[in-house]
Amino acid sequence: MNKQASTLSNLDEVRAMIKRHKMNDAIFSGVGLVCIMLVLLTLLALFIDLIIDGYPKLLSYEFFSSFPSRRASQAGLLSALVGSALVMIITFLSAVPMGVAAAIYLEEYAPKNWFTEVIEINVTNLAAVPSIIYGLLALGLFIYILDFGTSILTAGLTLGLLILPVVIVATREAIRGIPVAIREAAYAVGATKWQVVSQHVVRYATGGILTGVIIGMARAIGETAPVITIGALTFIAFLPPSPITTTPPFLNFDWLWSGFTVLPIQMFSWLSRPSPEFHVNAAAAGAIIIIVTLLMNGVAIKMRYNIRKKIKWQ
Amino acid sequence: MQSDLHQAAPAAKSISAKLGACLMLSAVALGISACSSEQADTRIVRIDGSSTVFPITEAIAEEFQITTRIKTTVGISGTGGGFKKFCRGEVDMTQASRPILHEEMEACKAAGIEYIELPIAYDALTVVINPQNDFITSMTVDELKKMWEPAAQNVIKNWNQVNPAWPDRPLRLFGAGSDSGTFDYFTEAIMGKAKSSRGDFTASEDDNVIVKGVSGDIGAIGYFGFAYYAENQQTIKAVPIVAQAGGEAVAPSEENVRNGSYQPLSRPLFIYVNAASAEVPEVKSFIDYYLENSTELIQEVKFIPLPDNEVSAVIKHWQERKTGTGFGGEPEIGVKIEDLLKRI
């Protein structure tokens, strides 16, 4: 009798405990939801505000096909769009092969000693260094020592350095996500280390690597401070020389040395104008930067999804 | 499992192929768009310097490029940053909202760079208040000094502390950031010493912040270049300035600046041309164009063009290619442009 009563009261206690824990769950998910809504709503409010301010420009073709001008109604984004695109190509070409190679080395080949440890800590820390520091480094290295001038090449390499740690860290994470069983299976059938890495590990990690690369590129496209430090232009009403020519050898690299401007600088320049009409242009440019970044992140998610869907190990 | 692995590999391969194709396509697209632009083999005219003077140079560069097809680029590194690049020989011309200083003269000399100093327009530093502020009709330089001098820090907090006739209302100060030429000129003109100012005010490099701040507070006062006032006359009001006690209050306007009565806050803006670059035909024709066509364009971007006699004096100075500065490395208030050019 006594025993039964104590079991019953125990049962009540357990029920109360379960109820309490469920409530904790509910409270936590509530707090989490509020937090994420705060973040999302802030972004959404900013974005909608930019769209509302800038929509007359966003809908006009001339805005994308004209050069900067002293008249707000005629000023366009063309040189900034082309500048950003060309700089991004250099950033991609400089950061991705080096970053992926460095990550593969660190993950697969580097001996586990204090030297590797120091490199690893530094790479992780580099990802958190303020971007202006990269601008100052580039000013000293690329402009004063190597004499590249204020060119698309300098800007691309600067932003390449900036996203290099992001690419390295993302690639390493992606490589670590490949099950050990895959490597062991490959080694078991006699593959060399290079074969394992190139034909298996890197291929399966491509989704993760691409995500890291695109997130890095999306960061680079919105960067202003380092590009201002190296002296990007504010008014440039012509496009860099064409990379493809009609005469042999059909390729022309003069554009690497051309002056340039990029989207965030064009936006900044419009925003600091006395005339409120220019602020509409600035809002539209801001909306374009956010849209490009969102698109890049969207592409990253889609690519990762597609690649992961095609890889099945079980 | 093995067959799945074999499937995965080509998938990854096709993705990298797609990525490559994307890059190629974008390169081709850029190539086409670049091809469509004029491909003239002329030298590019390179300009950098003050963000204050930028709207003027931009307007002139825009028209010049349309007329002559000579390519021009303009950057904004600020007056100081512009001189750095100029004395390294990286640009043909730099814009400046103040004259060249001693150390910049030394840097140019060390690099063997000679320059031609050309005043191109006036700017009126404008003291602005809220349009609903009805107790201020004019201000004397002494009152401005009492408000802004370093000794006022944490002491002068209300309007009636400056002048007992004004109401007991909190004073909210908005000013230019301490790196700007505007800050240097205002402090020099009002306090008599450049960079001498109280520190407890809202400082901003972006003058639109000052426009917003002053338009939202009856007790606010701020200062910036004339263009920001001219473009925002609905939301802010300019204060007429009395240069000397007992004198007349003069409002900032094109006329008052050009006839020299708006003192001490009108300042000349300059361009400095590299004397070696001046021999290059493209640069020469750009400067010719700049001096001959600037009046209307300067008005369009809300600065104040030089009077005709001063324009012809500057053009003569340019044609004679006289190098050097008329200031000797020291900032100076209220100097007449014709006198200035005679000193060189």
What keywords describe this structure?
heterodimer, A: 314 residues, mainly alpha, B: 344 residues, alpha/beta, five-stranded mixed sheet, 14 strands, 43% helix, disordered N terminus
Number of helices of chain B: 13
Oligomer: heterodimer
Strand content of chain A: under 5%
Give the biggest beta sheet of chain B: 6 strands, mixed
Poorly predicted spans of chain B: 1-25, 27-40
Query: How is the largest sheet of chain B built, in terms of strand order?
Result: 2-1-3-13-4-14
List the helices and strands and how they pair.
The complex is a heterodimer of chains A (about 325) and B (about 350).
Chain A (H helix, E strand, L loop, with lengths): L1 H57 L2 H5 L12 H32 L4 H13 L4 H15 L6 H25 L3 H9 L4 H29 L3 H5 L5 E2 L26 H9 L4 H35 L4
Chain B lengths: L1 H34 L9 E5 L4 H15 L3 E3 L3 H10 L5 E4 L5 H9 L4 E10 L1 E4 L9 E2 H8 L10 H4 L9 E5 L4 H11 L10 E3 L2 H9 L4 E5 L1 H5 L6 E2 L2 E2 L6 E2 L3 H5 L7 E9 L6 H20 L3 E2 L2 H12 L17 H7 L1
Parallel strand pairs in B: 1-2, 1-3, 6-11, 7-8, 7-9
Antiparallel strand pairs in B: 3-13, 4-13, 4-14, 5-9, 5-10, 11-12
Helix pairs in contact in B: 2-11, 3-4
Describe the structure.
The complex is a heterodimer of chains A (314) and B (344). The N and C termini of chain A lie far apart (55 Å). In chain A, 75% of the residues lie in helices and 1% in strands. Chain A contains 11 helices and 1 strand, in the order H-H-H-H-H-H-H-H-H-E-H-H. Chain A is globular, with a radius of gyration of 26 Å. By secondary structure, chain A is an all-alpha fold. Chain A has 2 domains: 1-59; 63-313, MetI-like (MetI-like fold), CATH 1.10.3720.10. By secondary structure, chain B is an alpha/beta fold. Chain B has helices spanning 2-35, 54-68, 78-87, 102-110, 141-148, 159-162, 181-191, 207-215, 226-230, 254-258, 281-300, 308-319, 337-343; strands spanning 45-49, 72-74, 93-96, 115-124, 126-129, 139-140, 172-176, 202-204, 220-224, 237-238, 241-242, 249-250, 266-274, 304-305. Chain B has a 6-stranded mixed beta sheet. In chain B, strands 8-7-9-5-10 form a 5-stranded mixed beta sheet. The chains are: A mainly alpha (314), B alpha/beta (344). At the A-B interface, helix 3, helix 8, strand 1 and helix 11 of A face helix 1, helix 2, strand 2 and helix 9 of B.
